[in-house]
Amino acid sequence: MVTRIVDLRSDTVTKPTEAMRAAMAAADVDDDVLGTDPTAELFELELAKVMGKEAAVFVPSGTMGNLISVLVHCEVRGSEVILGDNSHIHVYENGGISTLGGVHPKTVKNNPDGTMDLQLIEAAIRHPADALYYPTTRLICLENTHANCGGRCVSVEYTDRVGELAKRHGLKLHIDGARIFNASVALGVPVHRLVQAADSVSVCMSKGLGAPVGSVIVGSKDFIGKARRLRKTLGGGMRQVGVLCAAAYVALRDNVRKLENDHRNAKIFSDGLKQIKQLTVDSTSVETNMVFFDIVDSSFISPEKLCQLLEKHGVLAMPASSTSVRLVLHYQISESDVHYALTCIKQVINQVLNEVGQNGGA
Ligand SMILES: Cc1ncc(COP(=O)(O)O)c(C=O)c1O
Ligand SMILES: C[C@@H](O)[C@H](N)C(=O)O
Prior knowledge:
binds pyridoxal-5'-phosphate; four-stranded antiparallel sheet; seven-stranded mixed sheet
C-alpha cells in the first residue's frame, strides 16, 4: 500500500495552492474575447512589466505560446525558422509550426548546454535574395532553460549575441521561456535582462511556478495584437479567463522565490545518485530543477523497469532515453521527499541485483 507519493515526472504536475484556489474563486471576471476581463488585463500588464516588454497575452499552454509566436513572426508563406534539433518546439509540439502554420523548420544541432553554435546559426540563414528554391529565414528560436539538455541555462551574453546576429540579418528572435524564471534565478540575472534581446517570449506559469493552467506570450504591442487574434483563430480565445489568470498572478507573486530551493534539491538528488554505483549523473549539468541520470548497465534494469518498480514505492519518474531517467524537482517536492526517493532507488536496484544474483549492491 503506497502511503507516500513523490512525483518527479515533471514540474508540469504542480497543483494549485490554497492561495491560488482562493484567488480563482474570488476573481473579478468578464468576457476576455470582448477584451473586458479585468483580472486577465491586470495579469497581462504585470507580466509584460516583469519581462520588460510592451504587452502580453495569456494562452492555454506553452505549446500554443510557441506556436502563435512562430506563426506571427513567420506570417509570410515560405518562411523558415532556425531552431535547435533537440528543442521542445521541434521535438514535442507535434510539428505544429509546419502542420498548422506552413513554417519550415531549419534545425541546428543543440550543444549539451542548450546553445547552438553561432557560426552554424549564421550558416543556416537563407535570405530573400537567395536562390528561388530556398525558403526565407525569418526567425531564430532559443529555449531557456533547455529541457532536453538537462534544464541547462542559456546565458544572457549568448542570448544577446544571438539577438545581434538576428538583427544583423533582419530576423526576429523568439525564446521558448517555459522555465525562464528558473534560468533567471539560477543565473542571478533579472528576467527582463535575460530576455532583453528577444522579440517575443513564451513563459509557462504552469510548471515550476505552479499555476494550474497557462502560459503568457510577451512582446511588442503590435506583435501581441497579432498574437491575440491568432489565439482566437486557433480556438484559444477564452471567456472568463480571469479565473486562470488569478491563479497565475498568485504563482508569479509567491513561487518565483521557491525556485532556488528546487535547484538546491536537484543538487542534493544528484549528489545522492552519485553514491549509487549502478548509476551515473553529470552533476555539473544540474543547473536548475532537472536531474538526468544514466543506468550504467541498462541490461540489468531498463529505465522503464526502474520507473515501474519505483512507482510501487510511490516515486514517479519518467524514462528519458533507452539508458536514462529524468527527474524534475518542483516546490511540492521537499528535501525529505528527495531522501525518500533516493532510498527507494537504492532499494529497487538492490532488489533487482539480488534477483539476478549479481554480487555487489547499490
Ligand atoms: C521547454 C518547454 N517548452 C514548452 C513546453 C510546452 O508547454 P505545455 O506543456 O504547457 O504545452 C514544455 C513542456 O511542457 C517545455 O518543457
Ligand atoms: C514532456 C514535455 O512536453 C514537458 N514539457 C515536460 O517537460 O514534462
